[in-house]
Amino acid sequence: MIVEEALLAAAGALVVLAVAVLYRAVRGPTMQDRVVAVNVLGTNTVVILALLSAALDAPSFLDIALVYALLNFLMAVAISKFTVDRGGVM
Amino acid sequence: MIAPVGYALVAFVVVAAVATALLRDVLAAIILFTAYSLGMALLYTLLLAPGVGLTEAVIGAGVTTILLLLTIAKTVRPTDGAALERPDPRAAVACGALALVFGLTLPGLPAVGDPDSPVVAYERVTGYYLSQSYADTGVENTVTAVLAAYRGFDTFGEATVVFAAGVAAMVVLRQEVFT
After folding, report:
1. What ipTM is given for this predicted complex?
2. Same domain for B100 and B141?
3. Which of A3, A45, B80, B133 could pair covalently with B145 via S-S, beta carbons 3.0-4.6 A apart?
4. Same domain for B63 and B100?
5. What is the distance in angstroms between the Cα of A47 and the nearest Cα belonging to chain B?
6. Are B41 and A45 in contact (CB under 8 A)?
7. Do residues B131 and B177 both lie within one domain?
């Protein structure tokens, strides 16, 4: 029981940290800052999902965490490629 | 203990949504929209609808971002310095009032897992889906079973709409294949 509470508390703390990272994503000032900020948010999400999965005893959450881990990489590459040569995504 | 995590997530989602609406650079708005999708997927998952969360992750954060990036390749960036749009006061008041009205309806909603909520109290409908959905459809998660099997024709209609939109886009762009 205490372990679940601690895992949930850790998840809550990470969500609060995500709000702090969101400030960097909004403020910028450069687009690279925003890309890195969203990348950090994605990694953060994966960790939160893993913590929730352990705390709520729901292994299916790990599937979503996996999808995010894959997607996060794709997002960073797509946005970076777009900013390097603006107009070419694929 | 789970409620504070939910409240923090709601705050995150609201901040991301407002920032998406106000940022003047379209690329920055798209990046913030990704953050918004991350928060929404986490919220859905926290409300024990992992199927919806997975869809939000793939469609909201993945496909939509790529489509929007492809779209803004045809646009130009704002040249003057301001990062955030200064919203029209009347529009801001109208949006705020609408959000307030929606917010006022929130206390009317039953709490998550409330035994007296109508969904649980009318046992016949809910009980049928909870007890029979696996036997009927072979899908373990009841929410996913309702979305993908019981509401299958509805989902089929949605797929038809998406297909029609794709065909219309190709007609407008005068292309015969997706490039």
Report:
1. 0.82
2. no
3. B133
4. yes
5. 11
6. yes
7. yes
Chain A residues touching residue B81 (CB < 8 angstroms): none
Among residues B53, B84, B109, which one ends one of the domains?
Answer: B109
Q: Are residues B10 and B89 located together in one domain of the fold? A: yes
Q: How far is CA B115 from the centre of its chain?
A: 27
Based on the domain organization, do B168 and B135 belong to the same domain?
yes
Give the closest residue to A76 by CA, choosing from A58, A62, A89, A63.
A89
The tens digit of pLDDT for each residue in A2-47 reads 888 888 888 888 888 888 888 888 887 777 888 888 888 888 889 9
What one-letter code names the amino acid at B38?
L
> For the residues of A43-85, what is the DSSP string, one character each?
HHHHHHHHHHHHHTT-TTHHHHHHHHHHHHHHHHHHHHHHHHT
Indicate the number of domains in chain B: 2
Test the B interface: residue of A36, A66, A89, A90 with most B CBs within 10 Å? A89
Which structural domain range is residue B156 located in? 113-179
Task: Choose the final residue of a domain: B78, B93, B109.
Answer: B109
